[in-house]
Structures are given as C-alpha cells and as structure tokens.
Hints:
With 209 residues, the chain is an all-alpha fold. Helices cover 63% and strands 0% of the residues. The N and C termini lie far apart (41 Å). Residues 1-21 are annotated as: Disordered. It comes from Dietzia timorensis.
Amino acid sequence: xxxxxxxxxxxxxxxxxxxxxxxxxxxxxxxxxxxxxxxxxxxxxxxxxxxxxxxxxxxxxxxxxxxxxxxxxxxxxxxxxxxxxxxxxxxxxxxxxxxxxxxxxxxxxxxxxxxxxxxxxxxxxxxxxxxxxxxxxxxxxxxxxxxxxxxxxxxxxxxxxxxxxxxxxxxxxxxxxxxxxxxxxxxxxxxxxxxxxxxxxxxxxxxxx
Length: 209
C-alpha cells in the first residue's frame, strides 16, 4: 500500500484545530511519530496484519514447527481469522468514518473508509493471546500479547487511520474472539480428525487443557 498525505482523495476539508477524539489522535500521533523508527515499524505491522493474513500464516508455521501443539496453533489461526471477520461485520453496522482532519497525517492506504473497530487491532489481539499460549511457554504466553498488542494498537494511531476508541474496541472484540476460539475450536478439530476430515493427530496437548 502506498503512503498518502493530507490532501488524499476522500478526506473531508475541515477548518480550525481538531476537537474531541480527533484532537486526542493528533496529539498522540505527534508523540508516536517522534519515536525513532516508529513509522516504518507501523507500516510493516500494517502489512502483516492486513486481513489477518500474516497471523494465519504464522499460525500455520507454528503448527508445522510444533506438530505436538498443532491444535493450539490452528486455533490461533482460526481465532485471528474469525476476529477479523467479526470486525468487518461490526464495521458495516457502525459505519464510522476514518480520521480525516487535516491535522492528522495518514501514513498508509486502507481497504475501506470504515473505522470502528480496527480490524488490525481485533485480529492481532486474538492471534497474540492464542499464539502465546500455543507456544507452550508460560513466559511467551505473557510476552507475546504484552508486546504485540500494544505495538499494533500504537501503529494504527501512528499511521492516523484509526481513533483511539477504534483500537481499544478492536482489542476488546479480539479478546472475546480469542476466548470463543479457545473454547470451541479445539473440540471442532478433534471431531473433524475423528471423522477423518483432517489428517494427523490434532488432539490438544494435556498441558494446554
């Protein structure tokens, strides 16, 4: 996706200083962009999280590298994808427009003009919570979400494509999606494996139960 500027098509002209959440976003963005390397990191995270493709890919890699925890990694992939799908449904219901005040710098293109919730925040939160547990390492179960979720939320503000409430709402929806996937996906995989619909042993490891 190519970077855009404040004169990009679709931005509504506004005069005067930003108010409300737009003012909060403009202030946060200025602070975040002052951090060295924040913009390229935010852009990279944007590409990885687009449509949850990066998270699904990493989940598949985890399943291949840790076959004994294949169900947990597949659950992480399903959780990320379903979280993204849920965010799209909510966006179509809420139909909130993305930030468009000239004081806010837009740093990346977006596939839609709808803002709430942030799909990147939603799928990333679901993936991070489930992938951390999928590793089977208690420290990673904490540090993967503790590192990845704030980084993605901050990146959407850095790029100016979401309001703070968009990313927070996405994180809440992502956490709920992770909980649902963790509850139902393993049983679904086990039944599919028993029925011969999925190859290999996809039973959940005892330490993950």
